[in-house]
Amino acid sequence: MTLVIDNVFKKYPIRQSKTVVNALNGISLNISKGQTLGIVGESGCGKSTLARLIVGLESPTQGAITWRDNVLLRGSKNQWRNHLSPAQLVFQDPYSSLNPRQRIGECIREVISAHNLRKKEEIDSRVTELLKVVGISEDMKNRYPHQLSGGQRQRVSIARALAAEPELIILDEPVSALDVSVRADVMNLLVDLRKEFGLTYLFISHDLSMVRHISDVIAVMYLGRVVELGTWDEVLDNPQHPYTKALIAAIPDHSQVGQMDLTVSLEGEVPSPTNIPLGCAFHVRCPIAVPNCSKMIPQLLPIKSSQSVACSEVVK
Ligand SMILES: Nc1ncnc2c1ncn2[C@@H]1O[C@H](COP(=O)(O)OP(=O)(O)O)[C@@H](O)[C@H]1O
Ligand SMILES: [Mg+2]
């Protein structure tokens, strides 16, 4: 296993209101080399929080993140402060993740230098090579982010992530902020890069129709926990958790990449992470809930060798 996330919790205390946001509530996941793990769930379920923990921007409140048998993050100690993370993060909005006052060539050069990956005299040609790999021509090197289109900016963010030669790239809603017309191009680029360089991806989206195009394995998240996990065809063709079923029912057209509308298939809003329902957090919206569901948190249990579900009504 390349990356193991073991029972990780992340709580954000809010001083003013004396409440706690429970962003992650015991999440466990594995990613192996060369695999693409897709994570899907509604806005606010903790996807970006998980991404920030894996790259070491924040530390977990509880639990461990292990990288090739080295426990790098346990409890609140972030041991990546002294190392460069083996994972790189591509954010949803490339405009805010790129420095507006830095030419794009410079922003890639900086990463290569920070990681000491090339001799000084080789850096320029490496920058050109990386831009080429993502479909940006060399003569754009001296442009600033605002002089590029949204799609080009996201390509530069991807080049910047590749520049660090990471073992894992976390793509946090990488096309959600882009024009619909360029989404497919950027998705195709990601697929090509994975094949060419044997990359390992964690692909995050609130939109299941986006995740299925790229993922080997899909994890469905709800309020900071994984409720279903399986290969993409198991999860899509044979969903078991009532929440996964609702997500799939919300895809407007199975052949179409588009926005999901969960209001059509589920009652009520997602509860606030400051006040997570007891027992199974989904039971208040669940069409098959029984009284016991408010008492016990269901564990993610296998129903087949590769498909697991956290629902006591499904796994009995
Ligand atoms: N720094 C923070 N302080 C307080 N609450 C936060 C912070 N970061 C995220 N949250 C909250 O944690 C929950 C999960 O957020 P996030 O991980 O961004 O979800 P997602 O990416 O799935 O939309 C949300 O309720 C969000 O408001
Ligand atoms: Mg997010």
TrEMBL record:
Annotated GO biological process: peptide transport; transmembrane transport
Domain ABC transporter: 3-248
One GO molecular-function entry: ATP hydrolysis activity
Pfam families: ABC_tran, oligo_HPY
Leader peptide range in chain numbering: none
Keywords, ordered alphabetically: ATP-binding, Nucleotide-binding, Transport
Family: Belongs to the ABC transporter superfamily.
Name of the protein in question: ABC transporter domain-containing protein
Organism: Actinobacteria bacterium BACL2 MAG-121001-bin67
